[in-house]
Design goal:
Blueprint: H1 6-11, H2 14-17, E1 20-24, E2 30-31, E3 45-49, E4 53-62, E5 75-82, E6 87-92, E7 105-115, E8 122-130
Antiparallel strand pairs: 1-2, 1-3, 4-5, 4-7, 5-6, 7-8
The structure holds zinc ion (ZN).
Length: about 130
């Protein structure tokens, strides 16, 4: 029974929980999420665990959110360039719109994302918060 727990299954998603990307053996470019073919043409990769640290490239405030996130609006989202190179989008937490600055350091944190209905599973995921 425990082997089929949604939480245990979720923890096996190495790209999400462990924040694993792939690094090309040939050109060293890091990809997140994983790709099957590098921009250099290689298909040879090794697992690369990402630091979760990066800098803010751009951001905006979401005032009118999709239904599953509507109760959290307004909230902040942005694009973060990770230290290893990949650029990923995500919610930015524990900061106000006035405090955000392009280029500021951010780090990845786990936070509640949404619930599957009133009594359903609670989904967690990566968000970003400033490093002060
Ligand atoms: Zn490559």
């Amino acid at each position: 029974m425990y082997r089929t727990s949604p939480i245990i299954r979720w923890r096996r998603y190495e790209d999400r929980y462990l924040f694993n990307g792939l690094q090309c053996i040939k050109c060293k470019k890091v990809h997140y999420p994983a790709k099957k073919l590098c921009v250099c043409g290689s298909k040879d990769f090794k697992t690369k665990t990402l630091s979760g640290k990066g800098k803010l490239l751009t951001f905006t405030e979401v005032k009118y959110a999709p239904a599953q996130h509507a109760s959290k609006a307004p909230y902040l989202i942005g694009i973060v360039e990770l230290e290893e190179g990949p650029r990923i989008g995500g919610q930015i937490v524990d900061v106000s719109l006035d405090e955000l600055k392009i280029g500021m350091p951010l780090e990845r944190v786990f936070r509640r994302m949404y619930e599957s209905g009133r009594e359903g599973a609670i989904h967690y995921g990566a968000k970003f918060m400033p490093v002060f």
